């Protein structure tokens, strides 16, 4: 089984994303190390985190008009649906498929982070912050026609 572990290879140099990714690794590691009795609860925490994690990324992509948003958002949706199915299985006492899913999730996460999330992080580092701090003059002043 792939066991999730934080490594600097997962760092994307975009702090809001790195923070949420460290949290993901911690929660998935807790689920992977959980006893059968604790697995449903720890898996529920992974699912709850993932709703927020993917929700943030989806919102960043939609707000900034990120070019590859559709594919990335679709991948989030597919994975989140699988994780929810896993939760139903854990709650029904089917632990083996959930442990298998956890290993697959760990491998998926590393790949996703280093490809789609890396591209998004690069894009977000170039975006202005969401709250505008620059006040643009309204009306006539500053509205000069550009030459040529
Ligand atoms: Fe992510
Ligand atoms: Fe993502």
TrEMBL record:
Any Pfam family hit: Hemerythrin
Family: Belongs to the hemerythrin family.
InterPro entries with a match to the protein in the record: Hemerythrin, Hemerythrin-like, Hemerythrin-like_sf, Hemerythrin_metal-bd
Region Disordered, annotated ranges: 128-148
Organism: Hydrogenophaga taeniospiralis CCUG 15921
CDD domains cross-referenced by the UniProt entry: Hemerythrin
GO molecular-function terms, A-Z: metal ion binding
Keyword tags: Iron, Metal-binding
Domain Hemerythrin-like stretches: 14-114
Recorded superkingdom: Bacteria
Protein name listed in UniProt: Hemerythrin-like metal-binding protein
């Amino acid at each position: 089984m792939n066991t999730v572990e934080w490594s600097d290879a997962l760092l994307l140099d975009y702090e809001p994303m790195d923070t949420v990714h460290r949290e993901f690794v911690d929660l998935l590691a807790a689920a992977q190390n959980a006893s059968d009795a604790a697995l449903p609860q720890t898996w529920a925490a992974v699912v709850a985190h993932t709703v927020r994690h993917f929700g943030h990324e989806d919102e960043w992509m939609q707000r900034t008009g990120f070019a590859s948003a559709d594919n990335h958002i679709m991948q989030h949706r597919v994975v989140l649906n699988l994780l929810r199915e896993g939760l139903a299985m854990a709650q029904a006492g089917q632990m083996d498929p959930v442990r298998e899913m956890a290993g697959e999730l760990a491998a998926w996460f590393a790949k996703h982070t280093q490809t789609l999330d890396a591209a998004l992080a690069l894009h977000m580092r170039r975006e202005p912050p969401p709250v505008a701090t620059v006040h643009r003059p309204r009306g006539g002043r500053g509205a000069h026609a550009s030459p040529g």
